[in-house]
Structure formats: structure tokens, C-alpha cells
Specification:
The protein is an alpha+beta fold. The protein has 3 domains: about 90 residues, GHMP Kinase, N-terminal domain (Ribosomal Protein S5, domain 2, 2-Layer Sandwich); about 45 residues, no CATH class; about 140 residues, Butyryl-CoA Dehydrogenase, subunit A, domain 3 (Up-down Bundle), CATH 1.20.140. Helix content is about 60%, strand content about 15%.
Length: about 290
């Protein structure tokens, strides 16, 4: 079981290239990847996304790629001749007005926007750099998965402790089933007697049948059995490999639903108290599993 929270990084230096990658991951309903990479390497974006999708199922990821290209590359110097010519002409006019000015230098032109442009030719993204970037990516994903597995193990320990508390509460309620049934029957009989008042025209057999019928409708054995089954299934699911977060979320919803039905059917003070405690634990479990892949 893995968390969706984690961090992974990797870097390699071949002499010609220095490539580094950092990946941060937080919880998200689906896989949401945000890429930050130099524009000249955007041609690799589709394959980067595909490789990430092959390794991870859920989470919001921020991936940053940095590449230092140390290869020699042709440099181009573009001089805006019209600008320079106009500047020289202006300088001559000022000199003819007997103003003492220094001659224009290249450094002066470099400080003027758009007068001189120096650019290095962008080299093609060839097989060498592509292979290096993907190797660094796989290493960063390995590191991220290790981090997510470590966080997942911590979450599993917390969930197992919460499940143990929940199972104990369900067992305590189950141990009171006979008392619950007797209490429900007595309450139903009391209500019927209140409705009938002192009437002597009472079919005792019919009353017993109605009490049995209503008690059966209020029986909580099925809810308790399903709760025990869901708790066992939850534990088994946590032990599975792969993405189990959505499945655990579904099981937590089912547990919450059974507890709600149980609380509606059974109004004994002791049972209601345990039911409230169980629902609080269930909510805590649901909060925790929102971060599970």
C-alpha cells in the first residue's frame, strides 16, 4: 500500500550534460502531472507523461527537469546596422556641434536593447540526451515510489490501529445482541400497552405476533455481520499490491452506512454510545485513506 505523498529526485552528469529531476507528489483523485522543463525538450513531454503513467496511478505530481548542455555550439552575433548607422550619424552631428564625445564602442552597443543580439544555436535533442533524460526520470520515479511506500507503511499502521478499535466496538455491540432483542421487545410491548390503555379486549397472541414481527425488523444481526465482513475485507485489501485507495474508500463508505443503519435500529444507551465512537473512528479512517494511492 502506497501513499500519494512523496518526493523523488535523481541526477546524472556525463560531462557533456548535467541532468537533474525532482518530483513532488500529493494526493489527488486521479493522476495529474504538471511538467516544468526547458522548452527545447518539450518534444519529450508525451513520452515523459506515458512513462509516469505506467508507474503511478493517482496523485498530483509536479516534475521539474533541469538540463545543463555543456557542448560547444555555434554563436551568432546579429548587429542592427540601421541602428548603429543612425547612432554614428548622431554622434557626428554632436561632434560638429563641438561636443566632446567618446567614440562608440561595442560595449556601448551591447547596452542598447536590440542593437546587438548574441545567440547560441540550439542543438537538436538527439538520442544521447533523450536516453539520459529518461534514465534520470526512471531513477527519480524509483526514489518517489520508495518515498510513497514508506509513507504508505506509516498510514497502514495507523489504519490497522483504528480498525482494531472499530472491530472491538463491533464485537462489544455483538455481545449484547440478546439484551438488545429483549429490550426492543419490552419497549414494543410497552408502547402497545400505552396505545391500548386499559382495554380488556386484547388478543394476546396477536400482540405477541406483532412484537415478534417488529422485533425482527429491528434486529441488527445482519448489520453486525456485514460490519465484521467489511472490516476483514478492509484488512485484506490493505495487504494487496497496487492502487487500493479507491477500493478502501468504498469499503469505508459501506462501514459508515452499516453503522448509520445500526444506530437507527438500536436505541439502547450503551449501544448508541459505542455506535457514535465507531462512526468517529470510521470518519478518521476515511480521512486517512484519502492519501492512499
Amino acid at each position: 500500500m502506497k501513499s500519494m505523498t512523496g518526493y523523488g529526485s535523481n541526477a546524472q552528469d556525463t560531462g557533456s550534460f548535467q541532468v537533474s529531476m525532482r518530483i513532488r507528489s500529493v494526493n489527488h483523485r486521479y493522476l495529474d502531472l504538471v511538467l516544468r522543463m526547458p522548452e527545447e525538450y518539450r518534444s519529450l513531454e508525451l513520452e515523459v507523461r506515458e512513462r509516469v503513467g505506467n508507474r503511478l496511478n493517482r496523485g498530483r505530481l509536479e516534475l521539474r527537469l533541469d538540463v545543463e548542455d555543456r557542448r560547444d555550439r555555434p554563436v551568432t552575433v546579429d548587429v542592427n546596422k540601421a541602428w548603429v548607422s543612425a547612432l554614428l550619424q548622431a554622434q557626428k552631428e554632436l561632434e560638429s556641434a563641438h561636443l566632446d564625445l567618446e567614440k562608440l564602442r561595442l560595449g556601448d552597443l551591447l547596452r542598447i536593447p536590440d542593437a546587438v543580439r548574441i545567440s547560441a544555436t540550439t542543438l537538436e535533442v538527439d538520442a544521447e540526451i533523450s536516453a539520459l533524460i529518461f534514465a534520470v526520470l526512471e531513477g527519480a520515479l524509483d526514489d518517489l515510489e520508495t518515498s510513497r511506500a514508506r509513507e504508505g507503511a506509516k498510514l497502514q499502521s495507523v489504519l490497522e490501529a483504528q480498525l482494531a478499535l472499530l472491530a472491538d466496538l463491533v464485537e462489544e455491540i455483538s455481545a449484547q445482541q440478546e439484551s438488545i432483542r429483549r429490550d426492543q421487545a419490552e419497549r414494543l410491548r410497552s408502547r402497545i400497552q400505552d396505545l391500548l390503555g386499559n382495554s380488556e379486549i386484547v388478543d394476546e397472541r396477536r400482540i405477541e405476533q406483532e412484537i415478534a414481527f417488529l422485533a425482527e425488523r429491528s434486529d441488527v444481526r445482519e448489520e453486525l455481520d456485514r460490519l465484521a465482513t467489511h472490516v476483514t475485507h478492509f484488512r485484506d485489501t490493505m495487504a494487496e499490491s497496487g492502487a487500493v485507495g479507491k477500493k478502501l474508500d468504498f469499503l469505508a463508505q459501506e462501514i459508515s452506512r452499516e453503522l448509520t443503519t445500526l444506530g437507527a435500529k438500536c436505541r439502547q444507551a450503551g449501544v448508541m454510545q459505542r455506535n457514535v465512537e465507531a462512526k468517529l473512528i470510521c470518519e478518521q479512517i476515511r480521512e486517512q485513506i484519502q492519501n492512499i494511492e
